Amino acid sequence: MSRNILIRPLVSEKLTAQMEEGHYAFIVDSRANKIEIRHEIKKRFPDVDIKEIRTMNVRGKHRRQMTRQGVRIGRKSGYKKAIVTLKPESERIDFYEDI
Fold first, then answer.
1. How far apart are CA 71 and CA 66, in angstroms?
2. CA 84 → CA 43, 67, 77, 93, distances in Å?
3. In a 3-state reduction of DSSP, which class is residue 81?
4. Rounded CA gap, 41 and 47, in Å?
5. What is the dihedral of CA 25, 30, 35, 36, to 10 degrees?
6. At 2, is the pLDDT very low, low, confident or very high (cuts 50, 70, 90)?
7. How open is the CA angle 61-74-4, to the nearest 5 degrees?
């Protein structure tokens, strides 16, 4: 049973600035560990050399919505984020090459 470890890359203004320094962020499967994330990145991007991987669990935020029936309270789901740091002499990852 193969599962999708790398779900999608995270692209924000702060992370785009960190891409120039060799830091890339991905949303990963919540059960994945650093070793599995490293193997999946090497499989998808064979030219990169990984220096380190940091992972964190991001908790879901509470949300409220005003409706005619009253206030609806809900919650967004949480996710696991991995920040991958590449070695300085490594090739860079280009998320926009297939667009």
1. 5
2. 14, 42, 23, 11
3. strand
4. 10
5. -100
6. low
7. 60
Whether the model pTM is above 0.90: no
Query: Do 81 and 30 form a contact (C-beta atoms < 8 A)?
Result: no
Kindly report, residue by residue over 29-72, the tens digit of the pLDDT. Answer: 999 999 999 999 999 999 999 999 999 999 999 999 999 999 99
Name the strand (E) or helix (H) holding 98.
Answer: none
The structure tokens 């120039």 sit at 20
47: three-class secondary structure by DSSP: coil
Select from 50, 53, 54 the least CA-distant residue to 87: 50
Q: Is 38 left (phi over 0), alpha (psi -120 to 50) or beta?
A: alpha
Residues pairing with 65 in the sheet:
72
Query: Rounded to whole angstroms, how far apart are CA atoms 22 and 50?
Result: 10
- Tokens 């924000």 locate to 12
